[in-house]
UniProtKB/TrEMBL annotation:
It is found in: Cytoplasm. Pfam families: AA_kinase. Catalyzes the ATP-dependent phosphorylation of N-acetyl-L-glutamate. It comes from Alkaliphilus peptidifermentans DSM 18978. It catalyses: N-acetyl-L-glutamate + ATP = N-acetyl-L-glutamyl 5-phosphate + ADP. This is Acetylglutamate kinase. Keywords: Amino-acid biosynthesis, Arginine biosynthesis, ATP-binding, Cytoplasm, Kinase, Nucleotide-binding, Transferase. The lineage of its organism: Bacteria, Bacillati, Bacillota, Clostridia, Peptostreptococcales. The keyword Acyltransferase does not apply. Residues 26-261 form the Aspartate/glutamate/uridylate kinase domain.
C-alpha cells in the first residue's frame, strides 16, 4: 500500500506529541545480542536510536552480546553453561566476555552511531566505577550482582551531547571484573538515571505463552503475575532476567518498560512514537 505525501506529513505531525513528551528525557535501550542478527538490521536499530537523539531525547544504550561470547567460547573448545539464563563464568570466560563486549560490540555500536552523525561514547561498567558489583553466587563464578551504580560519568557525557553505550561488565572492591547480565544492568541503570522509559530489544515478539507461537503474545504483564509465569515454566531462560529487571524498574519509578522484537524494522520508533505499543509491557 502506497503512503501519500499527506499521510507522511500527518505521521510527522502526530510524532510531535511524543517528541515533546520525551524531550530531554532519558530512555534506556537495551540492545540484546540475539537481535544483532545482521548488519542491515543492526544499522536500522542504530538509525532509530540516532533519530531519538536528533529530536532531543537522551537515549542511553546498554548492549548485550551473549551469542558472540558463546561463539568465541566454542571456537576455543569451551562449553558454555547457563543457570536461569546467566552464564557460568570462570576466569577465562570473564576475559573473553570483556574482550567481546567492551572490545568488539561496544566499539561497533559507537562507530555506527558516529557514522549517523550522533556523538557516541563507549563506557564499560568499570569506567569511572560506573557499575559496582559483588559475586552473585559461588556456582555462577564471576557473575556479578550490582551493588551500586555511579551515574556521574553517564550524566557528564550526556551533558556533553554524547549517547553513552554501556557494556555490562562490573567492577568489584578488589578491582576484579564481573560479568553481569545486560538486562539487569539496563533495569537498574534506568532506575538510577531516572529514565522515563526502558525498552528491551530482543529476538521474539515479546513474552509469549508458548515461546514458539508469536500469536500467543502477552501484551501486558502485571508485576504480581511475573513469579506465577516463571514458576509455571512459561517464562524461562533469557526471558527470566528480562521480566525481572522490568519488574524492578517499574516498581522503582520507571514509567514504562517494554520488551520488543528487534527483528522487526523500526520497532523502537513504533514503540516510542505511537500509542499502539508493541511487544510486552510490564506494569505495576
Ligand atoms: N515465555 C517466553 N516468551 C518469549 N521468549 C521466551 C519465553 N521464555 C523463554 N524465552 C526465550 O528468551 C529468549 C530471549 O532471551 P535472550 O536469548 O537472553 O535474548 P537477548 O540476547 O535479546 O537478551 C527468546 O529467544 C526465547 O527463546
Ligand atoms: C551473566 C551473564 O549471563 N552475562 C551475559 C552478558 C551479555 C548479555 O547479557 O548478552 P545478551 O543481552 O545478548 O543476552 C553473558 O555472558 O551472556
Amino acid at each position: 500500500m502506497e503512503i501519500t505525501p499527506q499521510q507522511k506529513a500527518h505521521v510527522l505531525v502526530e510524532s510531535l506529541a511524543y517528541i515533546k513528551r520525551f524531550h530531554n528525557q532519558i530512555v534506556v535501550i537495551k540492545y540484546g545480542g540475539h537481535a544483532m542478527i545482521n548488519n542491515t538490521l543492526k544499522k536500522a536499530v542504530i538509525k532509530d536510536i540516532a533519530l531519538m537523539k536528533y529530536v532531543g531525547m537522551n537515549p542511553v544504550v546498554v548492549h548485550g552480546g551473549g551469542p558472540e561470547i558463546t561463539e568465541i567460547m566454542k571456537s576455543l573448545g569451551k562449553k558454555p553453561e547457563f543457570i536461569d539464563g546467566l552464564r557460568v563464568t570462570d576466569k577465562e570466560t570473564m576475559e573473553l566476555t570483556e574482550m567481546v563486549l567492551c572490545g568488539k560490540i561496544s566499539s561497533e555500536i559507537v562507530s555506527l552511531l558516529n557514522h549517523n552523525d550522533v556523538k557516541a561514547l563507549g563506557i564499560s561498567g568499570k569506567d569511572g566505577k560506573t557499575i559496582q558489583a559483588a559475586q552473585k553466587s559461588e556456582k555462577l563464578g564471576l557473575v556479578g550482582e550490582i551493588t551500586h551504580i555511579n551515574t556521574d560519568l553517564i550524566h557528564t557525557v550526556i551533558k556533553e551531547g554524547y549517547v553513552p553505550v554501556i557494556s555490562p561488565v562490573g567492577v568489584g572492591t578488589d578491582a576484579e571484573s564481573y560479568n553481569i547480565n545486560a538486562d539487569e544492568v539496563a533495569g537498574q541503570l534506568a532506575v538510577a538515571l531516572g529514565a522515563k522509559k526502558l525498552v528491551l530489544i530482543t529476538d521474539v515478539d515479546g513474552v509469549l505463552m508458548d515461546a514458539k507461537k508469536p500469536e500467543t503474545l502477552i501484551s501486558e504483564i502485571k508485576t504480581t503475575e511475573v513469579s506465577k509465569y516463571i514458576n509455571e515454566g512459561i517464562i524461562k531462560d533469557g526471558m527470566i532476567p528480562k521480566v525481572q529487571c522490568c519488574m524492578g524498574a517499574v516498581t522503582k519509578g520507571v514509567e514504562r518498560c517494554h520488551i520488543i522484537d528487534g527483528r522487526k524494522y523500526h520497532s523502537i520508533l513504533l514503540e516510542i512514537f505511537t500509542d499502539d505499543g508493541i511487544g510486552t509491557m510490564i506494569t505495576t
